[in-house]
Design a protein that fits this description.
about 375 residues; Aspartate Aminotransferase, domain 1; Aspartate Aminotransferase, domain 2; 2 domains; seven-stranded mixed beta sheet; four-stranded antiparallel beta sheet; 13 strands; about 40% helix; about 15% strand
Length: about 375
């Protein structure tokens, strides 16, 4: 199988990640922070080491501000619902995944907030201007994606973060398509809260995500329960990470995620991004020559992550995805949990076929895909 659905989940995983998952059940089988015996303490130290790796990778304040969640969606829900103030205004973008839009819509229909969506402009200046124009005195939160999961657009996060900083507003960033793919510096980017999955650009297993805090803003927790600390008190601990991590952590997943981070650091984010961009640039330039193929933006590796959306003639995107699947090519056809981006790009009625690469893809994979797309366009595959 040629796997080109890496924007959903990277595959395959590095050998060190798979091995770490296997070994963790034997070496780290006790609850972290729940006992004073050797295995429990050893597990706690191992979990802390992963917090430290993530804090260093994204330049967060301290490891204790790395909070493990069940996935990126969980992290975004905690951040959005924990930061948004009643009777306030929230600002987001028109490229947001449903992991952002559905919590906002729920809060809106519950009568807690109103929100506006800023359009990405033809350049960064226009995008920032669009965000600034929608700010109001009632704005209590800015939340937006770092990069679109459908069309790859990279938003000017540092400048949007500066806008939030100027107005003393927390800034939450959805890094689902950016963590491990783009260099993220939470302090320089003025990011208050970074939400990320472990199973995409960080090459970890499905399961663990993280909410990383930086600065003075701290959201309210959504879940209350046992943390292994202050057990005689009925009030939730106030300090992170314990205030957000009730219940048993996904120890094997977190330890394996740590190995994914090490893999990314060993190869280098710059090296990985350059290689992946080259593959998408080659795909884009080849598809541009095919009359039956519809493309929706020019691929520019400085402005987009390595994701490309397309359609073939009047064929439904789901049918194209199915036909490619019969050729043993894994892509994703549909709306990618992001109707907002499809409305912005005019593909709300059709959806798209999304191709996304990882460090483990090569030019032969793209050549095979191109050959299959040619056959579909000529109706040689039905």
């Amino acid at each position: 199988m040629i796997y080109l659905d890496n924007a959903a989940t990277t595959y395959p995983k590095p050998a060190r990640v798979v091995e770490a998952f296997r070994r963790s059940a034997h070496l780290y089988g006790a609850n972290p922070g729940r006992g004073g015996y050797e295995m429990s303490m050893k597990t706690s130290l191992k979990i802390y080491s992963v917090r430290k790796k993530l804090a260093e990778l994204f330049n967060a304040d301290e490891p204790e501000k790395v909070i493990f969640t069940s996935n990126c969606t969980d992290a975004l829900n905690i951040a959005i619902r924990g930061f948004a103030k009643d009777s306030s205004h929230v600002l987001t973008s028109r490229l947001e995944h449903n992991s952002v839009m559905r919590p906002l819509e729920h809060l809106k229909k519950s009568g807690r907030i109103v929100y506006d969506c800023a359009s990405p402009g033809e350049n960064d200046d226009k995008t920032v201007e669009n965000f600034r124009a929608l700010l109001s005195k009632r704005t209590s939160l800015i939340v937006c994606t770092y990069a679109s999961n459908v069309f790859g657009d990279i938003l000017p996060i540092r400048r949007i973060g500066l806008l939030a900083k100027e107005h003393s507003i927390p800034f939450v960033v959805d890094a689902a398509q950016a963590a491990g793919i783009l260099n993220i510096d939470m302090e320089k980017d003025n990011v208050s809260c970074l939400c990320l999955p472990g199973h995409k650009g960080l090459y970890g297993p499905m399961g663990p995500g993280a909410m990383i805090l930086c600065g003075d803003f701290v959201p309210k927790p959504l879940t209350y329960g046992g943390t292994g600390t202050f057990s005689k008190l009925l009030d939730q601990p106030e300090e992170p990470p314990e205030s957000f991590e009730s219940g048993t952590l996904n120890v094997p997943g977190i330890i394996s995620l740590g190995e994914g981070v090490e893999f990314v650091r060993s190869v280098g984010i710059k090296t990985m991004r350059y290689r992946e961009n080259r593959l998408i640039e080659y795909l884009y330039s080849s598809l541009r020559e095919m009359d039956q193929v519809k493309l929706y933006n020019e691929f520019d590796g400085s402005r987009r992550v390595p994701v490309l959306s397309l359609n073939i003639g009047d064929l439904p995107c789901e049918q194209v995805s199915d036909l490619l699947g019969r050729e043993k090519i894994a892509v994703r056809g549909g709306f990618h949990c992001n109707p907002s981006a499809h409305k912005h790009y005019g593909t709300y009625d059709s959806g798209t076929v999304r191709v996304s690469v990882s460090h483990f893809n090569c030019k032969k994979d793209i050549d095979f895909l191109l050959n299959s797309i040619k056959k579909i366009a000529k109706r040689q595959i039905i």
